[in-house]
Amino acid sequence: MEEGNKRRLAVRKTFKLYIGGAFPRSESGRTYQVLDAHGGFIANVAKASRKDARDAVLSARTGHRSWSAATAYNRGQVLYRVAEMMEGRRAQFAAEVARAEGCGTTDAERITDAAIDRWVWYAGWADKLAQVIGTANPVAGPFFNFSVPEPTGVVVLVAPDDSSLLGLVSTIAPAIVSGNACVAIASQTRPIPAVTLAEVLATSDLPAGVVNILTGDPAEMMPSLAAHGDVNALDLAGIGDVELAARLERDAAGTVKRVRRPQPDANWYRTPSLAAMSDLLEIKTVWHPQGI
Amino acid sequence: MTDEPSGFPYAPAPESTAIVNISSSYGIFIDGAFVEPADAPRFKTINPATEEVLSEVCQAGAPEVAAAVAAARRAHDEVWSAMSGAERGKYVYRLARLLQERARELAVLESMDNGKPIRESRDVDLPLAAAHFFYHAGWADKLDHAGLGRDPRSLGVAAQIIPWNFPLLMLAWKVAPALATGNTVVLKPAETTPLTALAFAELCQQADLPPGVVNIVTGDGRTGQLLAECEGVDKVAFTGSTEVGKQIQRSLAGTRRRLTLELGGKAANIIFDDAPLDEAVEGIVNGIYFNQGHVCCAGSRLLVQESIVEDLLVRLRRRLQTLRVGDPLDKNTDVGAINSAAQLERIVALAESGDAEGAQRWSAPCTLPDRGFWFPPTIFTSVSTAHRIAREEIFGPVLSVLTFRTPDEAVEKANNTPYGLSAGIWTEKGSRILWMASRLRAGVVWANTFNQFDPASPFGGYGESGFGREGGRAGLAAYLQEASS
Fold first, then answer.
1. Cα torsion at A116, A119, A121, A126 (round to 10°)?
2. Architecture of domain A24-289
3. Which of the listed CATH numbers 3.40.605.10, 3.40.50.170, 3.30.360.10, 3.90.550.10 matches domain B28-263+463-481?
4. Which of A122, A132, B210, B278 is most buried, judging by how many CB atoms fall within 10 Å of its CB?
5. pLDDT in tens, B201-238
């Protein structure tokens, strides 16, 4: 960067984790090198440990309590706020996506715009899910019988490895729009846009702990998370290794977790299906008496 | 108020078994016909109230399961999924009508094979089973409105494994939505209660249902495992214990086969101090002693607000003394036989753990028959949340009583379980009902009632009580996929 004749040395960022609304280093002190699409050095990124992952689950449980108690209108506004914050950093995201994914500026901007618009799309769902998924049930008796969707709780998701921003947003947003909290493991090879997204989330009025983002090796962290007693659901979008996916699904059975496993060839541009949200919802049916 | 039983004498009022015609042995139902597998071992199914042998059925093995799945596959690909929804729906309507027409016969058969009171099989199991077929029949040509986009597709062959507590009703919960959505099924009834499922096979014949659309294989858990793990199956639907549900989820890991699980429960039935106590007592009785407590959503943990616990317990004990335990076929019977010797053993063992851990047992005084499997309606007081009888599913007529002081404490105690199938709330305050309902981690919440079911009302659990819903529009998703996916 030059100004006049003076060269100015850029201030580099330390890439850290995002847990409970704070940006800690890994408790293990570990980092790993992240390279760009051409093999050039980008940064040393925090390499989360299993302990970090457990801390993240704890934060997510706390975040879930306040987030699921928030009104749907409020959640929708917060998700929209995320889009607003991303828009302000559009150029930064596009540059990071271009560098991470090795695509041209036009493609990177298209990806960034789709990611921002995805937040807007999901923001609108917050106060419509119950109307679209919920039902009033005409039972044969003197009851007002209704079914409403509720968040399943804490979701651990592995973001897709290739689609470092759009895939990540398309995995986090459907989890949290309904009131779930999540621990997201970013693309291992392309984590930079995820760390920037964490900075966006931290300034979007999202309660601490609703989204926690870890960088590191999913294969290291996921086995203990799949078996974790306080995790309600898994989204294995970024687990390409079929053996590992099967092992995680087996481990998840120990606590009857809900497991979502999108097809590996997912087209992240496509308008998502309702299943992205409904797979992480419970349906609660209430029988309320009628009488005088 | 007195602790004395009312002592009203009743004359026996047995339902006739002449209406039921049980074969001495049954084959398995594949491709529209009963077949007798040459090498399959046979086992007996008994009447748990008398220990008399009712019939002999097959222990289906791998060849039989494979043949059933192949028949279901052919029927799905060539006939059932290609048929218009309207025509498919008419077959399902036929099954609903056949169940209604033969309701009395099937109710008697159910009570004989299962041990449940005829009052319940006649007034609950059979009407609800028919209602499930009637409700789902109407969906068959309206699947565009199921919430899964236009033209949602059937999944293919559904493997359905059902428990012994509501044999025909659980069959209806599984088969009706599967057929209405264009799937074909291979159903395995529980080994202690196969007879109404085999009678249902005959109904399929009477309905002229295309061969292979419904296949029924009998056997124990080994047959269930073969079926759940069979490669030709596209979807597994299981109702039963959490332990077996976990095994099935484990065995399907990595297969991308669809799975729904309806598993165990340890429901809290919460009584506030403003509840109408006599109605609440009826609800508590219905919650835990209905079907001998063999109900996954049974209200097995009674949470009572501390200020009314003594009054409530006096009324409850008094009511329990009027319950008539005995011959399931007697129309006056309230509590029938425990379904099997093995289940009775589990109930006895868990009740003994209650004694050993310091809880106080009280059982309704009643004379139990000499033969068959019986357990008296029982209440445990001085129960702590750490006791096994407060944590584990007993699946019998055993109630554990705990207390609370504030609504928050009630919520906390109710949710303090890995299960999350159902809950009950008793209060006169409507706002408190909805406040509680929104905080309870349970798939079904009954307010001032308990153990109500309806085909239009989605049923299913949170947490280790399983996933997926049965009934209502939500239940259709378990058997459909979006056209584009």
1. -170
2. 3-Layer(aba) Sandwich (3.40)
3. 3.40.605.10
4. A122
5. 999 999 999 999 999 999 999 999 999 999 999 999 99
